[in-house]
Specification:
The protein is built from 21 helices and eleven strands. With 489 residues, the chain is of the alpha+beta class. The protein folds into three domains: 137 residues, Son of sevenless (SoS) protein, Chain S, domain 1; 76 residues, Phosphatidylinositol 3-kinase Catalytic Subunit, Chain A, domain 1 (Ubiquitin-like (UB roll), Roll); 238 residues, Orthogonal Bundle (Son of Sevenless (SoS) protein, Chain S, domain 2). The strands form three sheets. Strands 3, 4, 5, 6, 7, 8 and 11 form a seven-stranded mixed β-sheet that branches. A two-stranded antiparallel ribbon has the order 1-2. It has a two-stranded antiparallel sheet with strand order 9-10. α1 crosses α18 and α11 packs antiparallel against α12. The longest helix has 22 residues. This is RPGF5 factor. Keywords: Guanine-nucleotide releasing factor. One of its GO terms (molecular function) is guanyl-nucleotide exchange factor activity.
Length: 489
């Protein structure tokens, strides 16, 4: 119907139109382009039917590309109904539109299902999107957060360390406490979950309380406290969890652990809508309202980096610390082999954190073959020549694969900041084509579904370990730990 070049231009437009017009503007423009039945003889029938089909093709591509992003938009719902009625009226005079009519019936069926079953737990992407227009920064928000929605929440052990918990909004305080107790290797019955507001006000959560909802409602942070025989609450001291802490990771198979990391990252990466990269680049409000899935993957990358440093620095025994560093080098190599460059970068950066790289006694005891392997892995993260080593290696990898997202965002931002969006009051489509082309790389990465499965027994044990990371998110606290286990000479 359209040439491949025209299809690419159409895709460019659909990916980037929100930069210069609202969804309502686009709906009105398309209605103006959809010609009414020709009774005046000004256009011949073939021209009229061709224009109609082009409009219908654009709408079909648009709804296919945006999927969940558009199902809440009232302007679009009304527009689709209007177009559908027009096609129904036209199909007798233009039989060629019959195929387009069937396509529209499918589209409207999808929208009806979304309306009826808007919050179905079986929807592919459980992190919900919000419709937007960058031109007017117009947001249509959901009234309430859905109970089946999965989010990352932080349960603080101390001011500077927390367990990152991926759970549904409806998860009870008891279930969250079980996750945290297992993570910090503490007796669950001796712990209690407490919300602490920014003013310092504390509220103890009961076992059946919806912990995440309560925390969100009061804009407070969740802490885990110890309780004594008199039920008095006591916060943990900084680095107190260092005592009698077993290093569990040493007993875990490195390939299976890397596989679980990759599967977890894939679930986050696969949920990202291409439009999130556009919004992330052009939004100047610093809001994450329309980049939830992208933000989750970026947060995960940062947490994996902190997790590597935390695990090593909480290990006070030199021999075990050496084993840990070797373990992480192997996990990084496996992540690369599994084409998960997001966790690969995070682990290498974690090993290169100042508080870890200064541990000279530890690094001196790392065998030569491991140091050589780490040097090879490090070379892929070399930023020289615009990350040429990474780009060349990633290009050769077959899909499915997970890119290092911060670098992809840097590429889009570089195009945005280096080129004007408007030239002589006209949209600079050359710039938008370059941005759309970069964003489209996500499709190539996700051409196939990830088929890596961890054996069920190992998966059952590994899932809580990988899904809920215990990290110290303060560089000063990490450095103090580093100096404690290996003081300056």
């Amino acid at each position: 119907f359209l040439s491949s070049c025209a299809e690419t231009l159409l895709d460019d437009f659909l990916l980037t139109y929100t930069v210069f017009m609202t969804t309502d503007d686009l709906c009105q423009a398309l209605l103006r382009q959809y010609p009414f039945i020709n009774h005046q003889g000004k256009e011949n029938d073939s021209d009229v039917s061709c224009r109609k089909r082009k409009v219908l093709h654009l709408v079909s591509q648009w709804t296919s590309l945006y999927k969940d992003w558009l199902h809440e938009d009232e302007h679009l719902k009304q527009f689709l109904k209007t177009i559908y009625r027009n096609v129904l009226d036209d199909v007798y005079e233009y039989p060629i539109l019959e195929k387009d009519l069937k396509e529209f019936q499918k589209i409207l069926g999808v929208h009806r299902r979304h309306t009826v079953d808007e919050y179905s737990p079986h929807r592919k992407n459980k992190t919900f999107f919000h419709q937007f227009s960058l031109k007017e920064n117009w947001l249509q928000r959901r009234g309430t957060m859905n109970e089946t929605e999965e989010i990352f929440c932080r349960v603080y052990i101390t001011e500077h360390s927390y367990v990152s918990v991926k759970a549904q909004v409806s998860t009870s305080a008891l279930d969250i406490l079980k996750i945290v107790a297992e993570k910090i290797q503490y007796v669950e019955e001796e712990l209690v979950l407490v919300t602490v507001t920014f003013s310092g006000e504390k509220h103890e959560l009961q076992p059946n309380d919806l912990a995440i909802s309560k925390s969100l409602e009061s804009s407070s942070r969740m802490f885990v406290y110890r309780k004594d025989l008199t039920d008095s609450l006591h916060p943990f001291g900084e680095n107190e969890e260092l005592q009698q802490r077993s290093v569990r990771i040493l007993g875990i198979n490195t390939w299976d652990l890397a596989l679980e990391l990759t599967n977890f990252d894939w679930s986050l990466f696969n949920a990202i809508h291409e439009q999130e990269l556009i919004y992330f680049t052009f939004s100047r409000q610093g809001s994450t309202e329309n980049t939830e899935n992208l933000s989750l993957l970026l947060q995960r990358c940062n947490e994996v980096q902190l997790w590597v440093a935390t695990e090593i620095l909480l290990c006070s025994q030199l021999c075990k610390r050496v084993q840990l560093v070797k373990k992480f080098i192997k996990i990084a190599a496996h992540c690369k082999a599994q084409r998960n460059l997001n966790s690969f970068f995070a682990i290498v950066m974690g090993l290169n954190t100042a508080s870890v790289s200064r541990l000279s006694q530890t690094w001196e005891k790392i065998p030569g073959k491991f140091r050589k392997l780490f040097a090879e892995l490090e070379s892929l993260t070399d930023p020289s020549l615009n990350h040429k080593a990474y780009r060349d290696a990633f290009k050769k990898m077959k899909s499915p694969k997970i890119p290092f997202m911060p670098l992809l965002l840097k590429d889009v931002t570089f195009i945005h900041e280096g080129n004007k969006t408007f030239l002589d009051n006209l949209v600079n489509f050359e710039k938008l084509h370059m941005i759309a082309d970069t964003v489209r790389s996500l499709r190539h990465c996700r051409n196939n579904q990830l088929g890596n499965e961890v054996p069920s027994k190992e998966h059952h044990e590994l899932k809580p370990y990988v899904h809920h990371l215990h990290v110290i998110d303060n560089q000063q606290a990490l450095f103090e730990l580093s100096q404690r286990i290996e003081p300056r000479v």
